[in-house]
Structures are given as structure tokens and as C-alpha cells.
Amino acid sequence: MGAMLDWPGPPIHIIGMGVAAGTLSQAARAALEQAERIIGSTQHLAAFPELTAEKIPYPNPMSGLSALLHANTGRRIAVLASGDPLFYGISQTLLRYLPAEYLVFHPNISSLQAAFARLGRPWQAAQWFSLHGRPLARLRAVLQANRLYALLTDRDHSPIAIAGIVAEAGFGESDLWVAEELGTAEERFRHFRAAELAGAEVEFSPLNVVILETRGPGGVLPEFPGIPDEWFSTGEEPGKGLLSKREIRLTILSLLAPRAGEIGWDVGAGCGGVSVEWARWNPLGAVYAVECHPDRLAHLGINRDRFGVVANLHIVPGTAPAVLAALPDPQAAFIGGNNGHLRELLETVWARLQPGGRLVASAVTEDSRVELHQFAGNREAYWTELSVARAERLAGQRIMRPYLPALLMKLEKPA
Fold first, then answer.
1. What pTM was estimated for this model as a whole?
2. Cα–Cα distance list, 81 to 10, 16, 336 (Å)
3. pLDDT digit string (tens) for 376-387?
């Protein structure tokens, strides 16, 4: 994040261009006419040949915007943006450098607003999602049945690539509407089925947005907590390997009680059962999954991509507690694997845990159980032991095959 600028000059006006020419408000036009410097894309700057202000293209990379503004301190500046600058727009960058009181925003019609107008559908129920400059796998984190999505795209995340992800998720019957070059003479608005568009050879303008309505059986991506064990990549028979069983995993997550904006640690993450579910159901939090075993790290990465939690699940290779020093302090932490160093991990994580934070740890062996009890000491702790058995067939008969019981401890750090 860039340093905040000292801005003694007049406020900077950020002007949304909208999707059609001639839609600027009177206040926006006045700001443009009074500006000494106009910053924007080459296309937007070319729309005002009559203005005498110095026209400056956006820097590349955009991180140079801070230096550009600093070089023009005290000038009357207007910044041109697409659509509504406060909706996935330049505002996010500007607000890193300047407090809101130095910025005046002039919103306009965004491309997705205009797309829904072309479709003739209300858009308040749609889930808005930007793939612009972001990994396409992130779409897997939000795809659910019978939902309406509004998607911002870029050159690398075309409607065809989106349709492929949607079809792979079991929603091949979904409807996709692609709006291209909105507000221009080249505007197009077309409808496709996901299964038909996936892999098709259809040309699209890079300037497009997508409306998606999911249809189909789904069943490939989870829509509710409790991902089946066999859906995870573990390198062994599906559902086996170093992976917390679903019943235990759900209890762990309920004890962690993740909240939006919180930092979480999963120490000894294995193949990612806990950390993947944690990141998927708390998308506004950040989870750091610490693992040292190369094979488990590989499967942890596969599972992160498979379930689309690439934005908020951060894989940390290395051995704890040493590798924890570089991580931000957590509000919630889970210790699953310990490589025989449980007491050291408990002490380190507890020391780093923020006031009011929650520490959850599991133990299966008798040695680790003793260490949990010794560490808890006289602290007020919550204890529960889970014994899971699942049905199997033996000689044609159903039996219940037990797994090793897991002891869970939860401690809350005094605020």
C-alpha cells in the first residue's frame, strides 16, 4: 500500500464516463472544463478534443499513479474512469493515496447496469463478481445452483473460459448473456448455453461483461459446509490420506467460529481439509495454511484451486513454529499436525494470538493428549472428544468401522 499523500490543493474529481456518450452530469462537465490536468485512458482522453487542459494517460503500471499525482500537487485535476468509479474502479487505487475528503466522485452507469437493462431483468438479486486481473479459479468459490451472477471480465477471462468453468461445475444448462462494446455503434448482446459455449470458437470483443444464471444438477462444487472427504485430492484412495474427517472438520470450524476480516492460521494443514473449508465459507477472512511435507503441500495446492479459494487461502511452506514468524498475528488458529512439537507450537501460537482470539487444537495420540491438558492447565478451556465410525462392507454385511477418537481443545485469549 502506498503512502498517503499530503494534498494541499483543490479536490480531485473522479468522473465516471458511463456506457454512452453525452451522459455526464452538469457537475462532472464543470469539473472537466475547470481542470488543469485530465488523467485517463487514451480512449477516454480522446473524447474531449475541445478541452485545453493537459491530457495525461494513466501510468503503466498503475502503481505510478501516486508519483503522477504528487508531481501535480496543487493543480485542478480530473480523473476519467469507466462507468461508476466506486464499483471495481479506480477509486480503490486513489483511496490508497488520498483520504476521501480530497476526492469528489461523479458516478455514472456501469457496464453491468447497462447489461441488465439490455436483458430487461432486475439486478438487485445478482451476485457481483470481478474476474478482471484475477485468477479464473476464483469463480469456483462462488458458483452455486439457481443463482444470478454479474461478471466483469478481461482478455484472459473470456466468456468461453467462464462457460468452461460453469460446465465443469455441473451447470452446463446455464444461460450466459454476453454484452460487448456497450454504448457504441458496435454493441452486441448475445445469449448462449454454457455447455455449448465451452470450447466453442466464438469471437468476442475484449470489452465485454457476462450475466450468468446457473442451471443444471451441479454437485461438483460444495454449496454447504461439510465437503465430502472423497472430493479432496490426497494422493491416496479418495477420502484417505492426511485429511481431517468431515465430522471432525465441521466441529473444528464451529469452534474456530471464523468472522469476516479475521486472520486465521491452520498449522499442520495436511492436504487442506480444514483450511479449504475455512477459506470457502469465510471468503472475507484470510487463512494461512502451514505445511512442511512436500506431497501434502502439492495436494493442498490442488484443493485450493479445485474449490476456488485462491484469493484468501495462503499456502505457507515450511516447518512451524519457525515459519510462523513472518505471518500476521491471527484472531483464530488451529493446530492439527505437530511433528512431535505440540507443546512448542501451542506456546508460540498462544503468544501470537490476538486478544479475544480463539485457539483450537486436536490430539489423537496419548502423548499429544497429555500435552494439551498440561498446556491448558488452569485456563478455562472447552473440551470435546469425537469418535467417528463409518459404514463398510465385510463379507456382504454392513459394519461400522471406527476411526481413532480425536480430542479437541478450545481456548479463548482474554481481551
1. 0.89
2. 19, 5, 47
3. 999 999 999 999
